[in-house]
Amino acid sequence: MKKVYLIPLIFFILLAILLKIGLHLNPRDIPSPFIGKPAPAFDLPRLYQKDQRITSADMKGKVWVLNVFASWCVSCRAEHVVLSRFIRTHKVPTIGLNYKDYGTEEYGEDVLSWLSQLGNPYTFVAVDKEGRTGIDWGVYGVPESFVVDKKGIIRYKFTGPVTQQSVEDILVPLILKLREESAS
Asked: Kindly report the CA angle at 37 between 56 and 96, in degrees rounded to 5?
């Protein structure tokens, strides 16, 4: 009968072990089931030309980045300078996926204002007002960035704001490697 009193103690010890393990995990290392698989197809309105569409097929044959962002996202604002420099310096075709940018406006006024203040580094900005495309890509939150190769295969997912160190250590080497692979 005294062994019954050990159950809460054992449960507490197991919980403490799991907490200790969890504290050492990197939240950016959220695995993506899409790595190594074809990028999900999308067909969305373009921000500046709402009567025109941008599709994943438009990027076929290019090494490109999909950057998921929103005007209401503080981390997106923080990464914008670094991301803009990366796109400009390395001439990386990039689609900005404007994710769930709600507002009182009919069509993208919040993000238009945001991009006019901070600059628009994107090749195209696709409007995902309801977030369905983001869900198809497995987006957990914003910002997130995906690197896609010339065959349309997702090769990397970066969760959280892109930093200068992540650009230098991860993104630039990967982009250069993918460009080299496709050239040979």
From this structure: 35
